[in-house]
Amino acid sequence: MLGLIILGTFIAMILIAFKTIIEPKLAHSVVLSMGIGLSSVMLFVTFQSPDVALTQAVIGVGISSLIFLMGLKHLRGGYES
Amino acid sequence: MSLKRTIPMTTVSGFAVSAFFVVTILNILIKNMPSNIYRAGDELLKLNSSEGVANAVTTVVVYFRGFDTLGEIAVLFIASLGIGLVLKSTTKEKIESEESNFMLKTGAKLLSPIILIFGLYIMIYGHLSVGGGFQGGVIIASGVLLLLTSSNHFHISHRVVERLETFAGVSYVMIGLIGLIVMDSFLGNFLPHNISQMGLLLSGGIIPIIYIIVGIKVGSEMSVIVDNMLKRDIDD
User: Are the Cβ atoms of B135 and A55 closer than 8 angstroms?
Assistant: First the structure.
């Protein structure tokens, strides 16, 4: 059962990563990359490393995506680019 | 536009050469592999009980690899300095000058105290449970970001943040130097750390103090980064 969850999370990560690359809008791909980070948080929890999972959830998913979104506002096109 | 493309010869030869190198290096590594592999983590986990800290990861990050943590904080400080330099301007205002959304304002009123207290909890209980100063500082910075986006009247006092950051950095190095004088090693644990007190809030000697200092420094640096990113020149 645990193996199925891990395999499903891996496949979901790969699919979200492809979707992140082919997404035309930058803001959408930032939000999709948060999805990759969340699935890796699930993987870290299943591999029994809660410290790494918390770090990934806070830094990898939270603040870095927010900084990317704030940086997009500084671009000329804004969120539409 | 046709999807057919001719693959250039240089790409093919490059792939072949790199595959050859990878196979050669793997071959050397596998042939020279020792029969009994020791992992560094096992040795460190055996030493963990000597410091009286319940969370072994905290012992590794703050005590066994304390100098690396000092370097990480320096890197974060340089990143914050660089963002401040790139986005530097004398006349600044927030990007959204109009009033924020009603939902955002109500949600920020409800959530920001909880987020800030959760960040403090993660920071102070870093030696007992999951997390620590780095994560707690970033959680506090995200709470500050929520306050900054929701209200136009909320400002970060740069003087206070500067004082906090200076205090945290200086006291980290000072604790390390006191350890060097007392225990003959940089960041030596000179406060009492008995294994009988493992699990209490006041345990582990200098380790929780250093993690709280790291949390103050990371929180102030990330708050300054967020504050700089939210602003923009008026004449843009």
Answer: yes
